[in-house]
């Protein structure tokens, strides 16, 4: 008896012959800029792409090659560093230094800003080499987050080149290591998503021109902290969990910012890591978490706020500074902002 036919075969299209790889996409963006483009940003993004592929292969086989668990040291935030945190950091620092296009780096895993000696690099890169550390050993989605600033004068490159508001970023992105490896990038002309074809070793354009829905049905907060949340946050969460009309929102929280933001960009809704009575600045770091994710959210048509201020207008005072983060669909984040606007309580942000 013949095997029952699945419908899957019905609409399988022949493979495209016009493959848009990340490199081709970046080069076409450079060409679109004409004379203006020196090619430096292109080379830098290509270097970052290679680090994502290498980190992806190590994350995927981490349990097999004893790359899970602690590295035995802690970072400037007092967090115990995972082996993969340190490995991913070193992979990025080496590749960015060798690119010759980067003269300043800030990493979540390195206390001070790295000034690349003798570099004429016209860019500065801020990055979280492996975001979502608490999920690494369980094989749950983790990621790399990066933001790129222009360096005013490479010969005088300093930390001042990155202590700038997020709106000065020229590019931002993240790579998510999960069931598939996705790299999402913006150079200020919208947001595009790529999926790693492991066989080809190439990131292929699979999510062109990502536009976040204006309103979603999902909220993503660690409600385990709601005891400490300020009133506006709790009132907002109540309003979507017990709506006067319509269906309550659904909760989704992975605990890896890259994964929670990736889902929010694609499905809509709101992701939040508020400040609260216990942590006055919240948890997420401005330079290499809040700013790049806010840049991508705005480029995709969403909104990113501290509750009272546009995140991309915040001026960082130190390289590991933190700020409250609420980002996602325009209508959802505007709803949250109304609760903050109506509240006259005292708080830092
Ligand atoms: O466990 P919590 O308190 O909910 O925090 C989760 C948040 O912290 C982070 O893990 C912080 O990032 P790191 O893992 O890079 O330190 C985010 O990815 C995530 O959104």
UniProtKB/TrEMBL annotation:
It catalyses: beta-D-fructose 1,6-bisphosphate + H2O = beta-D-fructose 6-phosphate + phosphate. Its EC number is 3.1.3.11. Keywords: Carbohydrate metabolism, Cytoplasm, Hydrolase, Magnesium, Metal-binding. The keyword Nucleotide-binding does not apply. Pathway: Carbohydrate biosynthesis. It is an enzyme of class 3 (hydrolase). Its cofactor is Mg(2+). Signal peptide: none annotated. One of its GO terms (molecular function) is metal ion binding. Residues 20-208 form the Fructose-1-6-bisphosphatase class I N-terminal domain. It is found in: Cytoplasm. Residues 212-340 form the Fructose-1-6-bisphosphatase class 1 C-terminal domain. GO terms for biological process: fructose 1,6-bisphosphate metabolic process; fructose 6-phosphate metabolic process; fructose metabolic process; gluconeogenesis; sucrose biosynthetic process. Homotetramer. This is Fructose-1,6-bisphosphatase. It comes from Kwoniella bestiolae CBS 10118.
